[in-house]
Amino acid sequence: MKWMPRRLSSPLRIAFSAIASLAVHEHLLADLNYPKSERMNQVDTYFGTEVADPYRWLEEDVRESERVRSWVEAQNQVTFDYLESLPGRSAIEERLTEIWDYEKLGAPFRQGDWYYFYKNDGLQNQFVLYRKRTLDGDEEVVFDPNKWSSDGTVALAGLSFSKDGRYVAYGIQDSGSDWRTWKIRDLDTGDDLADTLENLKYTGLSWNGTSDGVFYSKYPDPEEGSEFQSLNTDMKVMFHRLGTRQEEDIVVHYRPDHPEWSYFSRVTEDGRYLVIQVSVGTDNKYRILVMDLSQPLAMPMEIVDTFTNDFSYFHNDGSRFFFQTDYEAPRGRVIVIDLDRPERDNWVEVVPEQTEPLRGVNMVHNQIVATYLKDVQTQVRFFRKSGESVGILELPGVGTASGFGGKPSHSETFFQFQSYSVPPSIYRYDFISGETELIGRSSVDFDPDGYTSKQVFYTSNDGTRIPLFITHKKGIELDGENATLLYGYGGFNISLLPRFSVTRAAWLEMGGVYAVANLRGGGEYGKAWHQAGQKQNKQNVFDDFIAAAEYLIDQGYTRSDKLAIQGGSNGGLLVGAVVNQRPDLFGAALPAVGVMDMLRFDQFTAGRFWTDDFGSSSESKEMFEYLLGYSPYHNLKDGTRYPAILVTTADTDDRVVPGHSFKYAARLQEAHAGESPVLIRVETRAGHGSGKPTSKLIEESADIYAFLAKNLGMKLSP
């Protein structure tokens, strides 16, 4: 249902932009008439404190509510009228389209006798999955999601290959929703089986040892029209046998006494065991169950019985199970738990804790491939199963390496390497020879030699040393005149690593400085770094971000009216909170799909999982007061001159529901006393970000950069 006002077609848009004079634009800016946002008399009481929520009605599902739909249409009309009027917008979109049009390759991975890999020819809306017999052989298409919809909004969202290599289960994501449909394809014939698994969320599929069935996790089906209200409880571990209907699937494990528990299940490589990882939120704290599939009546055996630490299974030798864990090792280590002696006193350390945090482990060529972070840059080390160090992989430079998949029987692995200014390259590592071979490199219409990227460290207000990456054209003057975009996240143990982005390349070409702060709350330095930004330590994250902005100003990169900040999801919360605390410090702000109401976030979809990082307004008076103290929606102050703000969200985001951004934008427009635009841009047929087609990404990026160019006073060259 296409109910939103659509953007002008490309030729008409260019013509419109060509005739839009600066005077017309200034008139639009001065006379921005924001749509009326009706206030309601909604007051909630928390621990004796009354809190007004005048825009509660904007939490209603935009796809079902006529009044919310009308509000969004009116907001989009104002926003797109403004964006279309911006000088240089069409040129920015044209350049983004040019620079985006390059072949993008993913690292290959082996399944059976085939090498599989993802590739995008340039401007395809979705990546295509290919396969070939040899690395230099002919390729054939396995899945081309670009043929699944006319607008490119249906994406391939997960793969699982059967043990015998004949079948592949694949996930289908429509309009960016977290609710997925899974189907099964016979790779010998290229035909899909009748088997279809509907309404799956936050789960993969794992094949049994005989390749005639899959294990998966399942929430109850959401009621139609209530996807935003579903709290994702009562998950079950299920088994589906090929040739049967989903209604006949068997419940393998379920704890009705703990409806808040979630499950991720995985069959071991030898096909004998099912490992069930149990979680209660987003924190890496798991209970572990193991079921012996060779015993028809076997019950799951619990080998880790508390939610206190990370236990991530990655390999087994018979009854000996290898786990990555932070148990008695906050930076991570590898241990073995033997099912025949599962008591904690019998756990054996294989790879001890290192100075750097451990971020990932695989078993390839019967070696442990361990990925570490050293000051937010990748290190890769090899260990024997006994724990003996084999060596360190020499990487092509300073940046981020990812991949390193494979099986114990494989003698090779593949990885991708990139940095902020260097496009991705694909490498093959041979375990037998110890040699690394370049097998693919992206050719982008962008000259990385004209730019420089460096890592610096600055001091937050409590003395903590924070890493900051800064990228810009070589030879810029540190005179405070450079438009600068500062990006941050700071939560959920997520690390922001140096990665190439065509959108950032366009920003650099425009003369902008791009900075990324590795704030507390992330995983850059292990468990303690994450915990320093959780719950009642959340202000540390905001302080770190503010200190990064002040550092960029103090060092002469920029000044307040030329500094913009950006973040998405938890990063959208970050931007909203920091703008409230220091509206004077920024010239523009870009909160995307943000968590803006910190008192009610756990009332919708996946929100209940986030209490690990945020806490909850219902858990205690102290936690309520802390959340209320920084909640972006609740801390907007009437009569404040806020910087230029472009809020972005999407109509089918069922992770951070768009009501967060709707309420925030309505309150922001009410409170704002300045002349800078404060707008909301609502995308259609899009979700939290994954699966968004290239065409929408280019349009959104052009809007954002044109918005920044205008409001940061950038002088764009032809």
Topology overview:
Elements: H1 10-19, H2 22-30, E1 43-46, E2 49-52, H3 66-84, H4 89-100, E3 104-105, E4 109-111, E5 114-120, E6 128-132, E7 140-143, E8 154-161, E9 167-174, E10 180-186, E11 191-200, E12 206-207, E13 213-218, E14 236-241, E15 250-253, E16 262-267, E17 273-279, E18 287-292, E19 301-304, E20 311-317, E21 320-325, E22 333-338, E23 348-351, E24 358-364, E25 367-374, E26 377-384, E27 389-392, E28 400-403, E29 412-418, E30 425-430, E31 436-441, E32 451-459, E33 465-473, E34 484-487, H5 502-509, E35 513-517, H6 527-531, H7 538-554, E36 563-568, H8 570-581, E37 588-592, H9 611-614, H10 621-630, E38 644-650, H11 659-671, E39 678-683, H12 694-711
Parallel strand pairs: 34-35, 34-36, 36-37, 37-38, 38-39
Antiparallel strand pairs: 1-2, 3-5, 4-5, 5-6, 6-7, 8-9, 9-10, 10-11, 12-13, 13-14, 14-15, 16-17, 17-18, 18-19, 20-21, 21-22, 22-23, 24-25, 25-26, 26-27, 28-29, 29-30, 30-31, 32-33, 33-35
Helix pairs in contact: 4-5, 4-12
